[in-house]
Specification:
500 residues; single chain; Immunoglobulin-like; mainly beta; 3 domains; five-stranded mixed beta sheet
């Protein structure tokens, strides 16, 4: 059901055949914290180039880069550090996406930024302005283009932003279920990310107006059954999906577009949250503009990524699972003959640091990837860890592809430990630096101690006459979390014990 398919050759040719210049597509802005109020900012600028017949290519118009905080504005000039390209399907004579990487180091301690640093506004915006948007968009009025990433210096000035791993020009087929993921990852700070629909902007805090029939929450034509009451809201998991649904925690967009030969602008705001003093605070965010082509597609069934999509593990337990792909062969009506089945390649966006993603059989027609990860103590948190996987087939002249989000929740082992009568036992020191373990009971005796690692494997056990005190040195144990079971007749009490 959750599928992304590239646009048809005919629609792409119609859109681009008369273009003899680079056409601006969008910008992704990210930043890395490199010191006190000092950030390395990267601007990824995307542009279409029509190359069939190799016509003259007019360059992009000048970009305007600004740092903004409240009323303070400073204009900057980042350096173009490299370029890259992205093929649109297998026919390189049609269209190529060019990517221009601009970068600068912004030190807000310098005199140039004194007004920015002195601003009463906590949000410091790294912005980019372009005088025109992608042309021919159906849902919004013609306007200039503006986007940003920001850091909230009041809550945490040392934040490093999320990175958007998907390209801002997307394609899918009309009347087919559609799944869209921004591929946003935060491998530095592991913050929680919230998503919401937003207005496209033409300048700082100046929204672009929607054309009649469109709005922030419904920026494109989607499937609503004629008799369905829209007041009930979208049904993302119906077949096909009804309405347009944005999942606020993963950023998944699920819908069924139903207007062919259309181009839309979809804009979402990403906000990063970090737990500070037991409260989630905003530490940064960005605006994510995407251009979506919708068209009648050629005879190609898109690839599919199988679930489950949500996993759990406890403490330091390793977790491994295999993600498989599928691609049903398209069978045309007689007398046409079916083409050979597509092959499917899969990749991941490295969204979880320290994890591995290994292709099981690189020569398989339908690739599968094995994900493995051993979390650390610092990975235990309320929000799940996320990564995306993309499946891409070899259909020509354009490829079909699907992107899915997978999550891994690392649970706190304390949640599985009994709390019965813990008040009458004292375990110390906890954590223990040298391996000393002391257990005492105020008004109860116990006759058996069992030590487990965090996976539940029994390491050792001690049996003795009923006593109120137990002492042992376990300096030879590796640092980590352990579970200690105290047995008192028919009563069992469990404790978490940490050896550093």
């Amino acid at each position: 059901m959750n599928r992304i398919v590239t646009i048809s050759l005919a629609f792409l040719f119609t859109c681009l055949s008369s273009i003899h210049a680079e056409r601006f597509s969008g910008i992704n802005i990210s930043y890395n914290y490199v010191g006190s109020l000092k950030y390395e900012v990267t601007y990824k600028v995307y542009a279409d180039k029509y190359v069939k017949g190799k016509p003259d290519i007019a360059p992009l118009k000048p970009l305007n880069f600004r740092i903004i905080a409240g009323p303070a504005i400073v204009v900057n000039s980042p350096i173009l550090i490299k370029t890259d390209s992205l093929k649109r399907g297998c026919d390189t004579n049609l269209s190529i996406i060019y990517i221009y990487y601009y970068q600068e180091t912004i030190d807000l301690n310098l005199p140039k930024y004194s007004a920015i640093k002195a601003s009463v506004d906590c949000r410091i915006y790294f912005t980019c302005y372009y005088p025109e948007r992608y042309t021919g968009i159906k849902n919004i009025q013609n306007a200039s283009y503006y986007t940003y990433a920001f850091v909230n210096t009041c809550h945490n000035s040392s934040n490093t932003s999320v990175k958007i791993t998907n390209d801002p020009v997307l394609n899918n087929c009309c009347n087919q279920p559609y799944y869209l993921s921004s591929g946003a990852i935060d491998t530095t700070d592991s913050d929680s990310i919230g998503y919401e629909f937003s207005n496209p902007l033409k300048d700082h805090k100046q929204p672009v107006m929607y054309n009649s029939g469109y709005s922030i929450k419904e920026p494109l034509d989607v499937y609503w059954p004629p008799t369905y009451d829209k007041s009930y809201g979208p049904l993302p998991f119906s077949n096909p999906p009804i309405g347009l649904y944005l999942e606020p925690n993963s950023g998944a967009l699920i819908y069924t577009p139903n207007s062919c030969s259309s181009v839309y602008s979809i804009c979402t705001k990403l906000t990063e949250y970090r737990k500070i003093n037991n409260k989630y605070e905003e530490v940064g965010g960005s605006l994510n503009d995407q251009i979506l082509y919708v068209s009648a597609c050629p005879g190609n069934n898109p690839p599919y990524l199988n679930g489950p999509y949500n996993y759990e593990t406890t403490g330091l337990n390793q977790i491994c699972f295999t993600i498989t792909s599928d691609d049903k062969q398209f069978i045309p009506p007689p007398p046409s003959k079916a083409l050979p089945p597509d092959t499917v390649k899969i990749t991941w966006n490295r969204g979880i640091p320290g994890a591995t993603f290994t292709i099981v059989d690189p020569k398989a027609r339908l690739m599968a990837g094995k994900f493995c990860w051993t979390p650390k103590l610092s990975d235990i948190r309320d929000a799940p860890h996320k990564f995306t996987v993309t499946a891409k087939d070899n259909s020509c002249s354009v490829n079909g592809y699907t992107t899915k989000t997978y999550t891994v929740k690392v649970k706190n082992p304390l949640n599985s430990i009994s709390q019965i009568n813990r008040s009458i036992f004292i375990i110390s020191p906890n954590p223990s630096m040298n391996g000393d373990l002391n257990i005492s009971s105020v008004n109860s005796k116990f006759n058996r101690i069992i030590l487990f690692d965090i996976s539940g494997k029994q390491l050792m056990a001690w049996n003795f006459e009923p006593t109120s005190n137990f002492q042992q040195n376990l300096e030879y144990l590796a640092p980590g979390i352990y579970v200690i079971k105290c047995v008192n007749g028919g009563e069992v009490v469990n404790f978490k014990w940490v050896k550093e």
